[in-house]
Amino acid sequence: MRHWRPFLLFTVLAFGYAFLYLPIMSLIVYSFNESRLVTVWAGFSTKWYGELVHNDQILSAASLSLQIAVLNATGAVILGTLAGLVLARFGRFRGRTAFTTLITAPLVMPEVIIGLSLLLMFVAMENVIGWPATRGMSTIVIAHLTFSTAYVTVVIQSRLSQMDVSIEEAALDLGAKPAKVFFVITVPVIAPALVAGWLLAFTLSLDDLVVASFVSGPGASTLPMVVYSSVRLGVSPQINALATIIVGFVTVAILIAGYLMHRQEKQRLKMQ
Amino acid sequence: MTPPPAHTAPLSPPPGPSSPTLIGYLWRWLLGFPFVVRVRGLAMGTVSWGRALVTAVPFLWLLLFFGLPFLVVLKISFSQAVLAQPPYTPLFSWAEDGIMELRINFQNYLLLVQDSLYWVAYLNSLRIAAIATVCCLLLGYPMAYAISKAKAEFRVPLLMLIILPFWTSFLIRVYAWIGILKNNGLLNNFLLWLGVIDEPLPLMHTDFSVLIGIVYSYLPFMVLPLYATLSRMDESLLEAAADLGCRPGKAFLTITLPLSMPGVIAGSMLVFIPSVGEFVIPDLLGGPNTLMIGKVLWTEFFSNKDWPVASAVAVATLLLLVVPIVRFQKAQEETTRKAEEGRT
Question: Taking Cα atoms as reference points, which of B110, B113, B132 lies closest to residue B122?
Answer without folding.
Answer: B113
